[in-house]
Amino acid sequence: MESLALAVVDRISERMRSVLQDAQQIEALSAVVADKGGGHLAHQVDLSAEGILFALLDDVGYEGVVFSEERGLVELGNQARLLVCDPYCNTSLTFRGFRESAVAAYEYGPDGEFVSGAIADLQVRRILFARAGEPACVVHPPRLEVRTRASVSDVRGVEDALLTISLLKRKRRAVPPLRLFADAAMVTTVDGAITAARLGFGEIDGFVDGAVGQPSYEALAYQLVERAGGTVTDHLGKPLDFGRIARGLGRGVVDRHPVVAASTEDLHREIMARLTV
């Protein structure tokens, strides 16, 4: 298998995409199956997507460790491998009429070294994909061998930028980055791997979550933005240590990681200047 991460997101996205187009199945998938606390709910769609994940891992005889958003850390064997997967990202939005969802998976070696990563867009049939030592590319299902080079936008100034700012939950709005709102050409808000994918596709120009931070399994999406040519740091301008984040998930540890991502270094610099005012 060329890439386990690519195989995972392709299978889950292809199966879930057809289900999400069926109005009768949508009602069943929207059922809340667990309250995870802090305003986070698990829906039947999460369990369905995760079931596809573990069925695939069984099919291919995977014997490493898996961190999945719903089940947490699962040991399937003694191999020194880690797969991190968010089988269905942005569940709550789906059932409030906003389809901003994705499937994400990342594979690591025994010391947290990146092997491959993939994010499948559930709105448009495409996948942002990268392997170790290579720049990111866009995969065009159903022919996974059909690929084009991924590239972030060339926007360099906030006043020309479409920025996505993480504001969906109330606690994120306690101290909003008012200068960014005032100066950006356009502003939208959403979280999760879909935002990183759209940065890699060159469709948005920056993402900001400097207050609360992304959970570990979602922060990993931004290593694909770097591999597509973007600039990614924390809220203080320090690079994110994706290897450390992955190693933590390999022990079942989920932290929060502030993220400031931009298509160009110039845009990133301008964003940071407005965050520190």
TrEMBL record:
SUPFAM superfamilies (UniProt xref): Carbohydrate phosphatase (SSF56655)
Highest taxon of the lineage: Bacteria
Protein name: Inositol monophosphatase
Provenance organism: Streptomyces prasinosporus
Classification of source organism: Bacteria, Bacillati, Actinomycetota, Actinomycetes, Kitasatosporales
